[in-house]
Write a structure and sequence with these properties.
alpha+beta, Gyrase A, domain 2, 357 residues, 17 strands, Elongation Factor Tu (Ef-tu), domain 3, 13% helix
Length: 357
Amino acid sequence: MAAALLLRGAAAGRGSPAWLWRPSWIPRRCLSRGSDLSGNPENGVAWTCFRLDERALLRVRGPDAAPFLLGLLTNELPLSGPPTGAAQPSARAAYAHFLNVQGRTLYDVILYGLPESTEEAPGFLLECDSSVLGTLQKHLAMYKIRRKVTVEPRPELHVWAVLPCAPEAPEAVPLEERVEATIILTRDPRTVRMGWRLLTQDDGPDMVPRGQLGDLQDYHTHRYQQGIPEGVCDLPPGTALPLESNLVFMNGVSFTKGCYIGQELTARTHHTGVIRKRLFPVRLEGPLPANGISPGTIVMVTATGQAAGKFRAGQGHVGLALLRSETIKGPLHIKTSEGQQVAVTALVPDWWPTAAK
């Protein structure tokens, strides 16, 4: 029954309710909200800041910026322009994918509305994997044609992830959204478990009250535990399918917006209601090869020897694997190149939304 729930796509939209369903076969400790973020509220530190040098920024602005991006992205655009002072401000960040014509993911991005934008000339920042910055710029140029849009890198801005030191009390020292010419601080649009995103030319801990610098490995460990893919290693361009990559769960797709490249397969898969494979967070138990588990390594069902899916990426003993949903009850394993057997436990994050029946 539990696996059957995961065969259907969740309802789309930013307002999708969080849920705390936990299958009986998964121990509670497997669903911890994160790794050790190197903080101790007792010493006055409340937030840990991680500088993400593997993420880069492109600025897209001009009179045609909004329709141009809407025709390429899976999601609606965030609010741009100066703060309005409204009691319930619109989202300043949005998560989305660029797809190819076959409906497979090319690039995952977080979009930010620029405060200096006007209604006549909106502007946005696109956060992407730094290794594909040039490729994404060429991708945008290919579809620009005669649109009044400029696309340019913003190397002077750095991307920071800001996570609470105490995940069980993330608002113990609340942050306030900041949207200024040289700094944007806003909630991560994918899930509350990923805290906040900070774009600034300065050091992140200086911009966050009671903040400290964190170890980047802790960020990736936390991200993998939450089942959050990020960048081309986790989402291989032209290979990953957006709905199998939990794009709906991460508020990354709108099924009511206008057309965009790759929409047909994505919409058809969603409306059939059946997603047979998903990208699950996994825990590895046993001795690992010196270079870790290779991407694409087959994950086997231990009882039958049948393939359950493939390991996608990871760090240490945590990672992501694309698995058939009916196999996640396990036990599962991977055979390493040295012939060793590594046990694999598939996890179900507590923030995933309830699948519609």
